[in-house]
Specification:
single chain; 271 residues; alpha/beta; 46% helix; 12% strand; elongated
Length: 271
Amino acid sequence: MKDYKLLIAGLILLLILCTVLFTWLWVNNRKNTNPLPIMAGENEPKVIAGNDSEIPTSDSTLHIQAEKSLQVALDEVIVRFESRYPSIKVETSYVPSRTLLTLPDNSSNNEENSDFIVSTDMIISNSSLPKKRLAPLQAELKAAQDKINQNEADTSQTAEDNKDSINEDSAETETAQTTHTDTRILNSYSYALKDDQMLEGVILTDNTAAINFRNFLLSSVGQDILKKHDYNNIEGYKNSVNDLFSPTTSSEKPSNSTSVDVSDALSNSES
């Protein structure tokens, strides 16, 4: 009877250990990962894919302007993204392709996005976004940034001019000084393929939520959702890894097709 009780106690202990192990694996496997390499642009923060330290700690809003033909696929991506980042609310405006790169009037910009020079954080296109196509948008960003810099310079100059009349000390004067902010350089990123066409997006502001969304779009979760809607995965990374272990036949061929007999070369050198 004593051995029987010990056996039951052992089985109960084993069951508890298995339950704890299963719970730990389930919690850790729920964490989102971004297996694809994410290259940050020159003017944006370096965010490591899958790093939860970059998750916003306070509520923020991400403003996206996307091509209307992407609505069904992106709506599903956004639902999954908001469940992954509950502190981020995504507001998406779907527009025709002809007006995709036309930004809404900044005068209608709400307070939530007042920290950025334009009211749209990200543009997502159903086609490629080469530098030439982005040039007018880049010029618009530069004009907006130059206006902000000028306003800050005028404010600083006004404070400097009032120095003598209100007898401010030097420490207070220095707080009125502002620094020039460079215009963000627009660099498009590829997120999917459709037939032979590369689909691309571009980040317009320094909103960290935009970088989080781009990383999620390129993650295995985002890519799987896009594939359900007939958008092919980005295969460049996968192919480059496969080539490391299974080189193509063409890469194995020597650049010079003429074969050289080693023994003949050695005998010629000795003579």
